[in-house]
Amino acid sequence: MNKMTVKDVKDWAGKRVLVRCDFNVPMKDGVITDENRIMGALPTIKYLMEHGAKVILCSHMGKPHSIFSEEVKLNKKDKAKVEKGETTAEAIIEKAKKDEPKKLTLAPVAKRLNELLGGKVTFASDVVGPDAQAKVAACKEGECVLLENLRFHWEEEKKDLEFCKKLAAFCDIYVNDAFGTAHRSHASTAAIVEYGLVKTAVCGFLIEKELTVMADSLEHPVRPFVAILGGAKVADKLGVISNLLEKCDILIIGGGMAYTFLKAQGHEVGTSLVDDEKLDYCKEMLAKAQASGKELLLPVDTVITKNFPDPIDAPIEIETVPSTAIPADMMGLDIGEKTRALYAEKVKKAKTVIWNGPMGVFENPTLAAGTIAVAQALADAEGATTIVGGGDSAAACTQLGFADKITHISTGGGASLELFEGKVLPGIACLNEKE
Q1: Sheet hosting strand 301-305, strand order edge to edge
Q2: I need a surface site. Which of 67, 102, 185, 307 has the fewest CB within 10 A?
Q3: Which residues contact 317 (CB under 8 A, 6 or more apart)?
Q4: Cα–Cα nearest to 170, from 226, 126, 117, 206
Q5: Active-site residue (options: 16, 414, 422, 423)
């Protein structure tokens, strides 16, 4: 990693510092239900406060309709409702105007930060408006201001120049510590620097750790290097599969995408999830693995059932069959016992392991065994660097109690996937290089 970090700036005293954090935490009835992202941001915030900076924190929360600015947008779910005639855009916006200021406010995050940081955090009820301007102006050395939800402004995602100028007016130095949004080129994640509005732009400790552990492991892995990919669709991981095949020694496939690979080999997969448009791609990847001497492993047995569970955690009857013998009227929803043992054995011998995507419908207790087995294998991999690439895999490790036995669990599912794919992340690319 060759990007400047907060430690590369010699003098923070009196400097106004805009810190892009990821405080998009899960909430229920105004109460934070998981504080991991808040805790992950604390080391950088504390470091800046202790070195006399005036710290201005900003983050998004959820996906609001941007009802507080000129441009209103509907999400896919709402657009579908309007198209079906179930409601109108006007009705959706009116409801959003009532609900979103309460549901998607960062006020509960500010309250929790204030408790964690000795009462030195104030909350601005807007982003670049009068309240934010007044509270940033009043901020003293060693204190913080948290701005309201950035996405209450449509200009954030559109990286509007005037909005960027207003954000930049709050700071002398910019710090990005939100890895979860580093793959987005939004006003607060990249454009504020890309437009040349802030000259000194560095990463915080969280992004530094993500890049040091994940990027270095990808570029300079200790071998054997095993990559495990799960999740539903091949289309979501096209570039990832190809890039990892060039870097790893063994690529393990599980989850819904495995059935597209199995069908590409000519096997019957019943009513399992299949991405028919990607069958040729899967054939190409199988050929690529063979030509390069890499192992590409698919499930040898599969847990099947008649219908997808509804609700998703409902009790369900299952059986296990060879992956080459799935009945035409059944669907595969998890890897079988033999596959779990096979995958665990490969992980056991590895020195570097990365994992992204569950092995099955892990939200259902009956169909979680494959995902649990992979998480257990990573936890038991002595002497190996084990990395979980955010998203559902990270949630599974945390829920199952394996988090403290994994070398690194990424805070960004989408960002880590793009890193695995070899893409340049805008929120990282914009930061200053070390001299």
Answers
A1: 319-322, 301-305, 331-335
A2: 102
A3: 305, 306
A4: 126
A5: 414
User: Does 391 qualify as catalytic in the annotation?
Assistant: yes
Catalytic-role residue among 230, 270, 391, 413: 391
328 Cα distance to chain centroid = 35
414 in active site = yes
Which residue(s) pair with 228 in the sheet?
252, 355
- Provide the mean pLDDT of the chain: 93
CATH of 221-421, one of 3.90.280.10, 3.30.565.10, 3.40.50.1260, 3.20.20.70: 3.40.50.1260
Residues 37, 112, 184, 237: which is the catalytic one?
37
* pLDDT above 80 (res 426): yes
Catalytic residue among 73, 233, 288, 405: 233
| Predicted local distance difference test score (pLDDT) of residue 28 | 86
Identify the architecture of domain 6-64+104-209 in CATH.
Answer: 3-Layer(aba) Sandwich (3.40)
Residues 293-309 have a mean pLDDT of 96
Query: Domain segments of the chain: what residues?
Result: 6-64+104-209, 221-421
Taking the mean position of all CA atoms in its chain, how far away is CA 277? 26
* CA–CA distance, 115 with 65 (Å, rounded to integer): 30
Q: Please say if 37 is a catalytic residue.
A: yes
